[in-house]
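Onboarding guide, step 5: your first structure request.
Type a short instruction followed by the sequence, for example:

Predict the 3D structure of this protein.
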Amino acid sequence: MINALWLNSFVTLCETGHFTRAAARLNMTQPGLSQHIQKLEAQLGKPLLSRDGKSFIPTPAGEALLALGRRRRAEEQALLQSLEADDPGAGPLRIACSGSLALLLYPRLVALMQAAPRLTLHLEAAPQPRILDGLVAGDFDLGITEAAPDHPRLTGTECGEDALCLLLPKDHATPRRFADLARLGFVSHPDGPAYADALLGRNFPEEYPGADRLRRACSINQIGQIPLAVAEGLGYTILPRSGLAGFAGRDRLHLADLPKPHRHALWLLHRKHRVLPARATRVARLITETLQS
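The system replies with structure tokens like these:
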């Protein structure tokens, strides 16, 4: 490795063209500067300066070393400028959340990218375990989960809440007994069984048989299409309220008002001890504002 201090001395000498002026700029003695040049020549095994009295010009080896020194200076200056800038409207950011939250957040994120064209946001709809694993592995910068972090390398703040909704066809009355739902059939989806256990088990504790025994009317894994089957009268389903954000046919649904609602907090997580860039702070603020509105 070429000594950075010696290299800086050589570049300064070539820029000033004079040992005395270079030594003054470097706040060192002229003999000390000469020693730096001699050490570089010894390390490289080639003369760096062609001397003519008190004047000099770089040798071919000196010209190559001067070019290297100038590149390093330019790279260091660019690094310092990037560290100072930390532009909240530029750079990539990776976010993970549930599919229902993705429907709610994506239009806001698109609007933000339109306002800040140098900002590149990557949003992945993922199940809870994938979000947690991805945050720990560094695949995501921010993640939204339904529980506080319990991993030692993660931290976060509560950013809002979501509620589970029982979706029925428009003309179907709110069920008083679980048997009223059983006749309809369950429109299943990947998170559906867990949601059913949470909401139906709470409201029909004596009758509810468990998600594994529900009669399924159909199933789909595209969250934006799940309410469609209900709107067409094929059955009932359970989704977070955020999952209805992108469905245009809400007037064809009946959101049942059950006596024991199920709400869960939402947490915005990131790696512990990581200093977030300004763009992450900006997006985190947008997410929190959206989920609390």
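Each response can be followed by summary notes, for example: Residues 218 and 256 are 20 Å apart (CA to CA).
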